[in-house]
Amino acid sequence: MVLNFRIILEIIILWFIIYHIMLFFEGTRAINVLRGIILILLMFFIIQRLRLEILDWIFTKLFAISIIALLVIFHPEIRQGLAYLGKRHFLFRIALKEEELEHILKEIIKAVSNLSEKKLGALIAIENEISLKSYVESGVILDALVSSELIESIFAPMSPLHDGGLIVQQARITAGGCIFPVAEDPTLSREYGMRHRAGVGLSRETDAFVIIVSEERGSISLALAGRLYEGINKEELFMRIKEIMKLKRNRKE
Would you give the distance in Å from CA 206 to the centre of its chain? Predict the structure, then answer.
């Protein structure tokens, strides 16, 4: 009876660990590889149970080498997962009412829409659960209320902050002219400039919503979890961000 209880407990713990690892990497390029590793582990377990010594030896050697290779190749995704584990605050630390949250998003999207029509480039990061403090420190501190007029003025051609990223943190515009990590990804089209690559780069390092306005085409894109959603309209942008925020709030409640 005690033995059966231990086996059930081990299965539950293993399931819990695998489930949360899958959540960390969901939406990233590492997810398919992770599924493959889980399948290999199951095969490895079966081989050991059947006592197939040659296959056991081969799998043991290959698995050890594979782990080292994966740590090198997928270090951005692993870092993002560890950052998620170590998070110390929640979405918009101040408990905003839904109408206040909607107002902030509408102000941001209004500015993005106007910048898009004028074909003025923009890069805006909205903090989610992982802190953007380190990126705030790379820019100029503003600490201002979120308004479409302020956002548009920051990305005006003559503004000294228009080339960097803007960070919205705790329902305020925290800083402008911030430096984001640039994604060095050969799979990204060459037509994407530094803004798009910086947006994708930040979304891989954190769980922020990163909005990009193309200076050449005037198109609006959203970088999220390392993926780039290009050519979306303002209504779709609003609904996508709001739905994700609402879903995460419901999980906490």
Answer: 5
